[in-house]
Amino acid sequence: MHPLLYIILAIIVFEALWDFFLGELNRKSWSDKVPKCLEDVYPQEKFEKQKQYRLANYRFGLISSAVSTILILMVLLLQGFGWLHYTVESFTNHKYLQPLVYFGAIGLASMILSLPFSIYSTFVIEEKFGFNRTTKGTFIADVFKSLLLGALIGGFLLWLVVWFYHSAGSLFWLYAWGGLSLFMIFFSKFYTTLILPLFNKLTPLEEGDLKSAIENMSQKAGFSLENVFVMDGSKRSTKANAFFSGFGKNKRIVLFDTLINDLDKEEIVAVLAHEIGHYRLKHTIRGTMLGIFQTGITLFLLGWFINHPGISQALGVANPVFHVALLGFGLLYSPISSMAGLGMTILSRKQEYQADEFAANHASASALQSALKKISTTALSNPTPHPWFVFFNYSHPPLLKRLEALDSNDKD
């Protein structure tokens, strides 16, 4: 076995053990009693149900993680990725078709292997705790739509990178960065216009007291309110959410219909003020730009190492092959990617506090607190996660920390 393969195996094992360690810390931190500030929305019986839901998901996560780790280790040890390359090569030598077939086969196998876990999570765990609204027909349609979109979008982006590799020489990474950056900007701008409607129905928010209250708040916040849509989130789950996406004339605020059903008018306005805060504070644009910067660093390193024969040899291919080396690079790059992701989660938590403060100043801190408590308890979220688990995994601050920060804003 090539020495680089030992490094790849060590990375995979370490990441699996690290995730297990953090998960165990988090499990042991679960409180036995309802935090005092949640007693008004979290009766002890519901709090116990939350613990059961957390435990069910935790145990299920352990099994799915163990299976995926064992499978990837087996494929690597048995040189399965090398075997796949030679199998694809026996069918076609086309320099553009080979990578598409190679990664298409890996993607299809990954989807098939993960499908039983997705079915169990949706129709057993989520069903047991009263969250699931997904029908079998919707689930099957989602699988095929996701598969088709992944093939079309992923295939195009892979073809683009391969084309630059064969056309631009050592600077292919720079051209690929430009092409992928344009796609990221396009995707960020038009996601709710082009992609989301393929899975969910979006309808403009109806005229009435709620829309009038939202318009008054948005004027106060200096936000031009044009596109507020209600999404049929109840088609799949009882959990509530809202989000902001796009920029310029394509910026949209999307409310789940479950959010409208669960919250009162003032609470909905406060949640929308939070989403508007992300836009007014330029979080959306900064997130896109940081994503572009990270992509540039990744592609620069890819351009530096892609032709190193050891990467392909570690996966069982004697001579350097772009698509095999691309997969090997992705496995070796995982620790750097995790560190970059950690930086993004830290920044995201900071931005959530900032958006909460914006909502407190332009709507109501108490209404946002009430909304956050309802959303969290309805979803049976864990109110007492371990600080380490939060640090490494949470893109949003824990509920109790957000409530505490909003108490300060309310007093100010």
TrEMBL record:
Swiss-Prot/TrEMBL cofactor(s): Zn(2+)
Annotated Pfam families: Peptidase_M48, Peptidase_M48_N
Spans through the membrane: 6-23, 60-81, 101-125, 146-166, 172-191, 288-306, 326-347
Membrane topology: Multi-pass membrane protein
Main location per the UniProt record: endoplasmic reticulum
Annotated Zn(2+) binding sites: 274, 278, 352
GO molecular function: metal ion binding; metalloendopeptidase activity
Residue ranges of domain Peptidase M48 in the record: 204-408
Cofactor binding, per record: Binds 1 zinc ion per subunit.
Keyword terms, alphabetized: Endoplasmic reticulum, Hydrolase, Membrane, Metal-binding, Metalloprotease, Protease, Transmembrane, Transmembrane helix, Zinc
Subcellular location: Endoplasmic reticulum membrane
Gene3D superfamilies, sorted: Metalloproteases ('zincins'), catalytic domain
Active site annotation, chain numbering: 275, 356
GO biological process, one term: CAAX-box protein processing
Domain CAAX prenyl protease 1 N-terminal residue range list: 32-201
PANTHER family linked to this entry: CAAX PRENYL PROTEASE 1 (PTHR10120)
Family listed: Belongs to the peptidase M48 family.
Name this polypeptide is given: STE24 endopeptidase
Organism of origin: Natronoflexus pectinivorans
